[in-house]
Each structure stands twice: as C-alpha cells, then as structure tokens.
Amino acid sequence: xxxxxxxxxxxxxxxxxxxxxxxxxxxxxxxxxxxxxxxxxxxxxxxxxxxxxxxxxxxxxxxxxxxxxxxxxxxxxxxxxxxxxxxxxxxxxxxxxxxxxxxxxxxxxxxxxxxxxxxxxxxxxxxxxxxxxxxxxxxxxxxxxxxxxxxxxxxxxxxxxxxxxxxxxxxxxxxxxxxxxxxxxxxxxxxxxxxxxxx
Length: 199
Ligand code: SAH
Ligand code: DHB
Ligand code: MG
Prior knowledge:
The chain is of the alpha/beta class. The protein has helices spanning 2-10, 20-33, 47-53, 69-82, 95-104, 122-131, 158-172, and strands at residues 37-41, 61-66, 88-92, 112-115, 138-142, 176-185, 188-197. Helix 3 (47-53) links the parallel strand 1 and strand 2. Bound molecules: S-adenosyl-L-homocysteine, 3,4-dihydroxybenzoic acid (DHB) and magnesium ion.
C-alpha cells in the first residue's frame, strides 16, 4: 500500500486517495459482506482498489473504471507490484461510455459498489450502481461531508452540490436504505454514505 502511494506521488497524481483508515474500512466491508464482485467508479492510482482487492478470495474480482489514461497506467503498475493483476479489471475511458459497455457485456450483478469519482456526476453513478446491483448490494459513496460543507444550503461548489443532489436522491429512492458516517483523519473531516439496495 505504501509503495502504491509512493508511485502515485512520483507520477504526480493528486493525493486524493482514501486514507489508510478509510481503505481499511473498505477492506473490512468486503470481508463483512463476503463480496466477490466489486465495482469501483474511478481508480486514480488504485490505492482504494488495492485495499478492496486485498480482501477478495481467489474467485473474486474488482472492476474499476478510470477516465485518465495516465492515472490508469500508474494504477496498472501498482496492481502488478501487488501481484493483484488477475483479480482487478481496469477499464479506461469515460464512465459514461464504460458503464453501458459493461452492462451490455453482462457484467454484474455487483455485490459492492464504491463510488469515488467526479462528484457532479454522483447521481448518474448511483443510478448505474442500482442498475448493476441486486437486492442486497452494498453501495458506498465517498466524500459526503466535505468539512461540513455538505449542510450549506447555499453551496456553490459543484462537487458539494453534486453530492447534495446524490443525498437527496437517496432520501427519495425507496430502494436505497442509507446512512452517512463522518470520518476525521489524515484527509481531514469527511465521510462516506453507505447504503443497501432493496428489492
Ligand atoms: N478511489 C481512488 C481515488 C479516486 S480520485 C482512491 O481512493 O485511491 C477520483 C478520480 O476521478 C481521479 O482519478 C480523476 O481522474 C477522476 N476524475 C475526477 N474528476 C473527473 C471528471 N470531471 N471527469 C472524469 N474523471 C474525473
Ligand atoms: C477530492 C476527491 C476525492 O475523491 C477525495 O476523496 C478527496 C478530494 C477532490 O476532488 O478534491
Ligand atoms: Mg474520494
């Protein structure tokens, strides 16, 4: 995990990976849910991907999507160094293109979906997670607190607004049962929304 962060820094990737404590949380969640098929929307250098992949059994797989080819290349190096190439499938391209392709290819249903991407598209990604999930699928949405910014009704930041829209959608969607957990640590004050998809 440390080698992956070092490689990310070396390649100049933004240091917006999950923190180690948050990565550990994702790893525990994979074990607790017994997830075998995991979908991650946006890889960056694959730090969160590695945390989730580390909890998979031989027959499990993380499908992870990244828009930026340079980020994807760094991630591939990190997956190879960890010896996890076989359990991680990285798709490069805009999620707006790769998600329909995955659907056509019959991917899923996924047991666990981690959404950690461009925040203005959070509602779109949640809808895809529902489409590619099944009753019982666990969905985790990152960065739902933003230093408390999320409760500002007059927010003008597009990332905050995208996440506010996602939380409103979750509140109004009877199939999504959710709560939000705040986290404080090396990445400041933020948090996850966790939810389960109902029938
Ligand atoms: N899950 C990773 C971090 C993902 S960071 C981890 O914790 O290790 C978010 C990723 O989303 C970045 O790789 C960036 O390339 C991508 N991204 C951010 N904004 C985007 C946008 N507007 N369009 C496309 N991709 C975007
Ligand atoms: C940002 C994005 C993230 O996914 C994150 O965990 C922290 C920061 C950002 O775009 O600033
Ligand atoms: Mg994030």
